[in-house]
Amino acid sequence: MSEPVLILASKSKARHAMLTAAGVAVEAIAPNVDEEALKDGLKSEGVTARNLADALAEAKAVRLSRRIGAGLILGADQVLALEDGTMLDKPTDPADAIAQLKLLSGKKHKLFSAAVIAEQGTPVWRHIDIATLSVRVLSDNFIERYVEAEWDNIRYCVGCYEIEGRGAQLFSAITGSQFTIMGLPLLHLLDYLRIRGILPS
């Protein structure tokens, strides 16, 4: 029997890079899930940020697993929620990024990073990790210059930052794993891959 193969149900360069850097052989395939429609439907039902991240990750994993059959299919998603429960999406344009950063300025928010592995169309493992981030008070001048310099890097990032880059300048304190902030509960995933024999124990 051949060894299970891990396939990432995403074209996320950050998640692919994290897995590759950790020594995981992984192939990336787009899951072809209408994320926005699914997200809008779940939000209209009043789902929490944590459960939204989990549902989106599961939808990606299960959809691709049913399409291609064999292998372990990893779906992942991340949701940002303010302290009052308001959820932010990826910025639509630089003006939206500026507005979001003004909203985040001087406040705490949480990132919920969910990962689900599906096999033969059925979820077999899942984990949701949480990071809490405190944004320092940001001046309008800083925000505008930051977005102008970083737009190409942050346009696909919920919260408008890459923590591993200049985005580190936004924060006064962080609680949680940097991997979680980057979009994947990596250490828990590596544990499961060892259990499955994909990685050596």
Structure explained in plain terms:
Strands 1, 2, 3, 4, 5, 6 and 7 form a seven-stranded mixed sheet that branches. The chain starts with 5 loop residues before the first strand and ends in a 6-residue tail after the last helix. It has a single domain, classed as Maf protein (Alpha-Beta Complex). The model has no long low-confidence stretch (mean pLDDT 93). Strand 3 and strand 4 form a beta hairpin. The chain contains seven helices and seven strands. By secondary structure, the protein is an alpha/beta fold. The protein is globular. 39% of the residues lie in helices and 25% in strands. The longest helix is centred in the first third of the chain and has 20 residues, at 49-68.
